[in-house]
Design a protein that fits this description.
single chain; alpha/beta; 17 helices; 47% helix; binds uridine-diphosphate-N-acetylglucosamine; binds uridine-5'-diphosphate
């Protein structure tokens, strides 16, 4: 029996982990056992607990309860806790997702103890090192043994950084291997979309009709912690919601900024607009129900950008660049950054585009099985 130790901490990682845990439960119970560590990076009920209950993810065996803090403090606390648990649990692999501080901490702790790392969502690059995520993902990739890239671009980024496509097993930290295997979030969206349509009451709760509203999310530090960017994006939401309902499930980071003293007048403007529905973060089933019925999606989230594509929705990306360049190439999404004029122009353009094509660029919905098989194969 091969033992993996999965490290999660932020909302999207909890959701992604559901796909791998499900694949293990359905296909690999005899060969793979999983121990889950939650770092506690996200801790509000609607940023963490709601997903375990709803998505059938096994409860974390450990919660480090690290909480919020500056990057160094938060990451250091995580490393300390994960290191202890690697020593006591003695896993064969540490599995990490994406690019958060929890990912970085897992990569550092595991590699210093010579435990091989499997990195899911490897190879993605924004080529913008002002993003903390860009630093986390570069470090984690270069500490990993098995690198699973969701897209061809991610795979090629790794090749460009010197990863060899011809390495032979056994793979080790000094002899890593890279795979293009599709996107684990796509596995989840396919699996949960019908269930969401069946179980979620979010549309009736919010009094929304299908295809009659815009869905938005906002949480990147570049947008929330830069006053000009923040005001510009919120103003664009106010403008767009003059003619259509706009639903904004608000990340706690963004809520704090919106409610802060600096933004008093902005908040007053927001409150005056009844078409702009600001709500608390929603569960995953509610979120994908909102996504699959939206007319258009506006977001700076990595995951929500992709989900927009999975559900064939046009998307305005509230960032200056994206890791999901394939989506841009299809014309289904437009990069608008935090620029009011670009955002409102993109809204006009995408609202009137018909016949956007959404070719399959995120795999076949079975990347979790591929990842489990690959981990097992490397230990034969
Ligand atoms: C983190 C990730 C980001 C990811 C996002 C997913 C890093 C560097 N960033 O950003 O890549 O896209 O998660 O959502 O790892 N807060 C709460 N309750 C919570 C969690 C956070 O109130 O349950 C507030 C705290 O004020 C905290 C702030 O949100 O300081 C930011 O949280 P943090 O986890 O540091 O970063 P995110 O912006 O969530
Ligand atoms: N999500 C959710 N509820 C919300 C907002 C987002 O379940 O209120 C889900 C969303 O469907 C996606 C993931 O959270 O699967 C994206 O996480 P987030 O935007 O926090 O982080 P990112 O993907 O940018 O790292």
């Amino acid at each position: 029996m091969l033992k993996i130790l999965t490290v999660i901490g932020a909302r999207p990682q909890i959701i992604k982990a559901a796909a791998l845990s499900r694949a293990i439960k359905n296909n690999f119970t005899k060969e793979l056992s999983e121990v889950i560590i939650h770092t506690g990076q996200h801790y509000d009920q609607n940023m963490s607990e709601v997903f375990f209950a709803e998505l059938g993810i096994p409860r974390p065996h450990y919660n480090l309860a690290v909480g919020s803090g500056r990057h160094g403090i938060q990451t250091a606390r995580m490393i300390e806790g994960i290191e202890d648990l690697i020593i006591s649990e003695k896993p064969d692999y540490v599995v990490l997702y994406g690019d958060t501080n929890s990912t970085l901490a897992g990569g550092v702790a595991a590699s210093k103890l010579s435990v091989p790392v499997a990195h899911i969502e490897a190879g993605l690059r924004s080529f913008n090192r002002k993003m903390p995520e860009e630093i986390n993902r570069i470090v984690c990739d270069h500490l990993s043994t098995l690198l699973f890239s969701p897209t061809a671009t991610g795979f090629n980024n790794l090749v460009n950084e010197g990863f060899n496509t011809h390495t032979k097993p056994p793979y080790t930290p000094d002899n890593p291997s890279i795979f293009h295997c599709g996107d684990i979030m796509y596995d989840n969206s396919l699996y949960f979309s019908e269930l969401a349509a069946e179980k979620s009451n979010i549309l009736s709760d919010l009094n929304l009709n299908s295809s009659d509203y815009v869905l938005a999310t906002l949480h990147r530090d570049h947008n929330t912690d830069n006053q000009a960017n923040f005001s510009s994006i919120i103003d664009s939401f106010i403008q767009i919601s003059k003619n259509t309902q706009l639903v904004l499930p608000l990340h706690p980071r963004t809520k704090k900024v919106l409610l802060s003293n600096v933004n008093k007048s902005l908040y007053q403007k927001v409150k005056l607009n009844s078409n702009l529905k600001i709500i608390d973060p929603v569960s995953f089933l509610d979120m994908i129900q909102l996504e699959q019925n939206a007319r258009l999606i506006m977001t700076d989230s990595g995951g929500v950008q992709k989900e927009a594509y999975f559900f064939n929705k046009p998307c305005i990306i509230l960032r200056p660049e994206t890791e999901w360049v394939e989506v841009l190439e299809t014309g289904a999404a437009i990069l608008a950054g935090a620029d009011y004029d670009k955002i409102t122009a993109a809204f006009g353009k995408l609202s009137n585009l018909i016949n956007i094509k959404f070719p399959e660029i995120f795999g076949d919905g079975h990347s979790a099985e591929f990842i489990c098989e690959t981990i097992l194969k490397n230990n034969e």
